[in-house]
Amino acid sequence: MAKFFKTAGVVVLILLVLVLLLTGIGRLLGGSSPLSQFLQAALSPAEKFLGSGVAKLETLYGYMHDYDRLKEENTALKARIAEMAAEVRRSQDANEENERLRTLLNLQRNHMDYVMVDAYLISWSTSSWSSAFNIDCGSRDGIEVGDCVITECGYLVGIITECGRYSSTVRTLLDPRSAVAARMEEAGITAVAAGDFALMAQGQLKLTYLQDAGVLVAGDTVLTTGSGGVYPAGLVIGTVADLRLDQGGFTEYGIMDPAVELTSLQQVFVIRGYAEEENAS
Amino acid sequence: MRAEHIRSALRTALILLVFYLIQVILLARFRPWGVVPLSMPLLAVAAGLFGGGVWGGCIGLFTGIICDSSLGDSVLLFTVLLTVIGFFSGFLGEFVMARGFPSFLLLGIVSLALCTGFQALLFALMIPAPRNVLLLTAVKQLLITLPFLIPAYLSVRWALRPIRAAKRKTTF
To answer: Does residue A232 lie within any of the structural domains?
Structure first.
């Protein structure tokens, strides 16, 4: 038994110490572990290729499985499209007027100040304790830790928490460590939209530190305030779903649905920079 | 290094890759019960049981690095934990337990409970969350990983067959 520990134990211990040293040096130098970076670089092409295949299969399966529901949805959507077409026609005039007024006032179009990089999702984190995913852009593309990530519609997705040379990790809004200063569009009050472990599995967020919970309306759009300098102002976080009381029964908090549909996410945009002074509200 | 060692190492690398890709591409995307199964520790246990302390430790080390890289929230937890688990599985397989499925089942469940427990503990230290929710997540993760016991056992036993055969020949 002593021989086992002398021979096998020493070999394993040396290897472990080497790996820990390498990782420690990588961390000290301010990046992610070199071994982790090497693994990411080596495995991400396979993950990306297989991931896209699985996504296609998933779509195909979804079509077959949800045929009846899709048919009903299709009919409802057709009616909705007709309604919306009429609405578009009505709003076209207003838009044209708006455009003219914008030009007149020499205002910049919304978000023209954003410097963005588009990125594709490689893989989701395999942890049950967090909500994060990897994207195929890194420091090579000018991305830095703390950069904000959005969808093509301007819905907030999360923030860059780890940045390698070729890939980065995005922590989503749902992660219990996420917190964003938020503003209700209709009610006009501010709050903090934060990830909550109990709500993470249901794909929802918690609205805490509500200024005045009484004026909170279900369906109200929640936007970023821009304070703190991490997230630009005016990004859509989601909509208010419910108002609840905490365990003590004294403090009210809101439940909100994020605007972004994380499960179907494939492409995201990383905001590398924006005009902070003009955006913060 | 002998030919059987190289053959076993290549087979093990293939199994690690397959398990990793299944975990990252399929399971992380679908999240059955809202949790992701953690099948990689089972490979370290099986490697220790069938290959001995060095194999268990080394495969545990690689598996741990891969796990830490794909989990993203545990820094070095799995690198250390799976190395130790793999090494001690080797020790137990050599001196205490028989190298069969019942031993693997027992060690597998204990190692999964250890890993999940450490994950929950680290999480609880960083973020305040209700204890019952933490416990429920841990139990769900443990239960949903149990079906992976069989493929992990069979595949690692197949991968390490060349070195086991060589060992038997030497002993004989």
So the answer is: yes
Tell whether A5 is covered by a domain: no
- The CA–CA distances, whole Å, from A165 to A28, A34, A37, A39 equal 16, 10, 8, 12
Under a CB-based contact definition with an 8 Å cutoff, are residues A234 and A227 in contact? no
User: Which residues of chain A from 206 to 265 reach within 8 Å of chain B, CB to CB?
Assistant: 263
**CA-based nearest distance A210→chain B, Å:** 20
pTM (2 decimals)?
0.70
Contact A35, A15 (CB under 8 A): no
The tens-digit pLDDT sequence of chain B (172 residues) is: 578 888 888 999 999 999 988 888 888 877 778 888 888 899 999 999 988 888 899 999 989 988 888 776 657 888 899 999 999 999 998 888 888 889 999 999 999 999 999 888 888 888 877 888 888 989 998 998 999 999 999 999 898 888 877 777 666 5
Query: Is A50 in CB contact (< 8 Å) with chain B?
Result: yes
Q: Please, which residues have CB within 8 angstroms of residue B71's CB and are 6 or more apart in sequence?
A: A125, A126, A127, A130, B78
Contacts of B66 in chain A (CB under 8 A): 39
| Region class of B112: left (phi > 0), else alpha (psi between -120 and 50), else beta | alpha
Specify the DSSP element, H or E, that contains A179. Answer: strand A179-184
Residues A190 and A78 reside in one and the same domain: no
B32: chain A residues, CB-CB within 8 Å: none
> What domain range includes position A90?
64-105
ipTM > 0.95?
Answer: no
Across the range A251-272, mean pLDDT stands at 86
Q: What is the CATH number of domain B3-166?
A: 1.10.1760
Shared-domain flag, residues A240 and A202: yes
Chain A environment of B86 (Cβ under 8 Å): 12
Question: Which residues touch B63 (CB under 8 Å, ≥6 apart)?
Answer: B16, B40, B41, B43, B44, B78, B82, B86
Query: Least CA distance to B144: which residue of chain A?
Result: A128
